[in-house]
TrEMBL record:
Annotated compartments: Cytoplasm
Quaternary structure (record): Homodimer.
Protein species of origin: Eubacterium oxidoreducens
InterPro entries, sorted: 4pyrrol_synth_GluAld_NH2Trfase, Aminotrans_3, Aminotrans_3_PPA_site, PyrdxlP-dep_Trfase, PyrdxlP-dep_Trfase_major, PyrdxlP-dep_Trfase_small
Recorded name of the encoding gene: hemL
One GO process term, biological-process aspect: protoporphyrinogen IX biosynthetic process
Keywords tagged on the record: Cytoplasm, Isomerase, Porphyrin biosynthesis, Pyridoxal phosphate
Secreted is among the record's keywords: no
Protein name according to UniProt: Glutamate-1-semialdehyde 2,1-aminomutase
Amino acid sequence: MGITTIQSEQLFEKAQTLMPGGVNSPVRAFKAVGRNPIFIDHAMGSKIVDVDGNEYIDYVCSWGPGILGHAHPIVIDAVTKACAKGLTFGAPTRRESELAELIMAAVPAIEMVRLVSSGTEAVMSAVRAARGYTGRDLILKFTGCYHGHSDGLLVKSGSGLITNAVPDSAGVPKAYTDCTLVAEYNNEESVRELFGRYGESIAALVVEPVAANMGVVPPEEGFLQFLRDITTKYGTVLIFDEVITGFRLSIGGAAQYYGVKPDLITMGKIIGGGMPLAAYGGRKDIMEVISPLGSVYQAGTLSGNPIATAAGLATLKLLMDDQDIYKRIDDKAAQLEKAYISAGYKTVNRVGSLMSVFFTDRQVSNYNDAATSDTKAYAEYFGHMLDNGINIAPSQFEAMFISDAHTEDDIRKTIDTIRS
Ligand SMILES: *Cc1c(COP(=O)(O)O)cnc(C)c1O
């Protein structure tokens, strides 16, 4: 079966003359799977519909925000009502406090929070807060973990196991990445060595508690607790980047799911309910370094804007009031996982409603393992799914997201396609 994509092709041709690669975020261009992107007209519940009228069961879910599915009527209603009262004021509103209160009720590690507009901004700001708080410059991250595209975090490891990082993008001065150390995910020894050398100078260790930007890679038993212990020992601020896992793995995110309490947490995606909203927060004594209370500057024209807070608040309230949702999305993901395994896919990584199928014989527990995946085989699998009305990430190194809107029928159809 094939799909007709005449309108998408035309729009893409034009878009390429207007925007780099025709898109506003690279993965949307489908380059990794060797196809042209589908342009979306609208989406509802578990389905997304392109401009040619093709309907797909959507497992991208806007890369994570769509935990309730698309266009949830209660969220749309909240946004519509908010719009009628004005789009942005650049002044405080009641809903910002309501959202902050709700986030803090769900996530005990967050004693004070600042709202921003993107995950990139949240992590960048949390790192600055940690530096301001500790008076130290270095940060430590893991290869394959993504924390947005700010300069100091757009790094990869150089050659050799112990090394300072090198830029992972043109345009990033080496001077920035000189302040970033890179360790291997799930490799305690690589972390221990860096702390042994630089521990007293490391302001923050930032980690995705479940890595979900190299495909999904769960933390090994004890790994997060190890990070908690070693950062405590060296007075380093432990930052969990929960931009994906926040309100995804549980109401209290990965911190609750794994029972490990970081010093700062960054969130995004779900907390904006589909609008540009993110946050960073945590220990009060650290958050108090932020301006205007403290000396670490961070600001935003549209931060905590009334439309985004309306969408976020409606979404989080729905999750808070119906926490069985986590069991439901987990069960659906487990059904898909089972289907992949019985269809002969060897390496399936899943944590709750986050999942990845890797085309490698190796168990995938870090970036080097993930990189052994046969991306050509992934591209074929992607094409098979898309041509059969199922939209999955157009890259091996992204997660599959299951939402509360996916129906039994969707799961059955997806399983049939996996098997065919
Ligand atoms: C998506 C993501 C970011 C960046 O968020 P943006 O809103 O795209 O800037 C940061 N960290 C993680 C873990 C993410 O998945």
